[in-house]
Model the fold of this input.
Amino acid sequence: GRRSLGQRVVEELKHYYNGFHLLWIDTKVAARMVWRLLHGQVLTRRERRRLLRTCADLFRLLPFLVFVIVPFMEFLLPVFLKLFPEMLPSTFETESKKEEKQKKKLNAKLELAKFLQETIVEMAKRNKADTG
Done:
């Protein structure tokens, strides 16, 4: 059913609170990783990816804060998200958006695999025709 305006506002506030909280936790972890890097330790692949994602999220946070701080600007947020889908920091994404991104990536990988498979089949046919 439909939710009241008050319920939707509370849900959005909870979403933003959780997003900022997760970003704060990621920032603390990234600061520890930078400290380790500065002291000569090597990061694992997973840690390096997390550090890069957190840095990117912090840079994405600046334009996003304009929508949060300026009154009534949040009404334009859906328009800007449609124009710039990667504008939100990763901690602010909903589960449906994450699933949608994963599906797009999977479809792209499947298309690439099909293309490569067709290319290999064509190359095998050419090699067979050349030798036989």
Summary: The mean pLDDT is 88. The chain is about 80% helix and 0% strand.
